[in-house]
Design brief:
single chain; globular; 6-stranded mixed sheet; 7-stranded mixed sheet; 13 helices
């Protein structure tokens, strides 16, 4: 049997390299204006004419009505986002040096994080770092490269060289969105493949603001951990002293562990996933040397969030601080009304187990749900629970998840007393 890492690396040689002859695209007037303003996406419906059929990863040059250069990017024939733009308004040679430069700039932007007792953070945030469709997360000595378009597949060997030049890593793991997996698997390229180093034999460890966590980079959600909530976890720590804390959709217990270090008297971690809660308990064990963490009482409930909250309310359980951080409820635009209703229900249920004068922390990671609509749904849920919210903060993306255009803004979080 062939070594899975070698099979995967060798499989990239089976990919056809991007065509030397670039595609030429003409686009609508509206798309011209949008691209001129720096938007990184060109949709299929905006293409007026195309010089030839293209393969995933081919370079597409976009021109305006006067045949002037507008942009160049990676072509993806399988996606409504037909081109992910790498360069706007001025021509550039897209080669190994170009990509290495973009990677180096992204790493430089994270220099402050690396100096704050934090070895887990996002190195490349796709469009936010002008590398659309590409995410690279760092977990100490392991890097996880996640592709959201098959257009990046032919460039993986070049990306590995560029990453190696700017970030020391013992392992680099490949993760892919489902759409990319469908195109990669026939070539022997599988999700969770180790591209550099021996395949991991267990979870990796990293540090976030001085707390130790494990991460399953092969099978964990996203790249293994929700790095984007780092600042909100730290904020919850400052609010937790002496409080009984309920962490809903706890996953591997990040908010619970921060609350414990912040002096919480107890935490309850509620999540439907038993393996996630088992990881939460291991994360607790990694930090038991901290007096506040060891002094805090911890409880783990493997249950659906909606039914679990209803049961806790019926049993008369009450908490001083409730954190509600659900997964995305709106994968498609048509799901937005249902998502807003779910947020409303969660707010009502959460306030049903929160003591008067307690603190609610409610987050959404649904990009299709606007901040205004999300906050409004939380307020409606509070009203139906007979509670008045006194909102004292709204937060968004941390610095390692930069947002350059509205469609990227997915994370929002509300803090309120009630």
């Amino acid at each position: 049997m062939r070594h899975p890492m070698l099979a995967t690396v060798n499989s990239f040689s089976a990919l056809l390299p991007p065509a030397e002859h670039r595609l030429a695209l003409r686009v609508t007037r509206q798309a011209q204006r949008t691209l001129h303003q720096g938007h990184p996406w060109l949709f299929d419906r905006s293409i007026v004419s195309q010089s030839a059929e293209g393969r995933a990863g081919d370079l597409a040059v976009i021109f305006d009505d006067r045949r002037r250069f507008l942009a160049i990017g990676l072509y993806d024939p399988s996606s409504p986002i037909r081109v992910r733009v790498l360069q706007h308004n001025a021509p550039a040679t897209i080669d190994a040096a170009f990509l290495a430069g973009r990677l180096a700039t992204a790493v430089e932007r994270r220099a402050r994080l690396a100096a704050k007792e934090t070895t887990g953070y996002r190195l490349v945030h796709g469009e936010g770092d002008e590398l659309p469709g590409l995410v690279i997360d760092r977990y100490d000595r392991v890097l996880v490269m996640k592709l959201y378009t098959p257009a990046w597949l032919p460039y993986v060997p070049v990306l590995l060289e560029g990453v190696a030049a700017v970030v020391p890593a013992e392992w680099i793991v490949l993760r892919m969105s489902r759409a990319v997996q469908r195109e990669a698997e026939p070539l022997g390229i599988v999700d969770g493949a180790t591209l550099t180093g021996a395949p991991p034999d267990g979870p990796h460890l990293f540090v976030e603001n001085g707390l130790r966590f494990e991460v399953d980079v092969l099978r964990g959600q996203k790249t293994g951990f929700f790095l984007d909530q780092r600042d909100n976890r730290a904020r919850v720590e400052t609010l937790a002293a002496g409080k009984e804390v309920l962490n809903v959709f706890a996953y591997t217990g990040g908010f619970s562990l921060y609350a414990a270090r912040g002096g919480a008297s107890s935490t309850v971690s509620l999540d439907i996933s038993v393996p996630a809660l088992e990881a939460a308990q291991r994360n607790l064990a990694l930090n038991e040397h901290l007096p506040a963490v060891s002094a805090c009482q911890h409880e783990y409930l493997a249950e659906n969030a909606f039914t679990g909250l209803a049961r806790l309310a019926k049993e008369g359980r009450r908490f001083d601080l409730v954190v509600v951080d659900p997964p995305s409820f709106a994968q498609q635009q048509s799901a937005v009304p249902g998502a807003l209703h779910a947020y409303e229900r969660l707010a009502k249920l959460a306030l049903g187990v929160m003591r008067p004068g307690g603190t609610l922390v409610a987050a959404s990671c649904s990009s299709r749900v606007s901040s205004e609509d999300f906050f409004a749904s939380i307020r409606t849920g509070a009203s139906r629970a007979g509670r008045v919210l006194h909102e004292f903060d709204h937060t968004a993306h941390p610095p390692d998840h930069p947002v350059r255009f509205p469609e990227m803004a997915y994370l929002k979080c509300l803090y309120a007393l009630s």
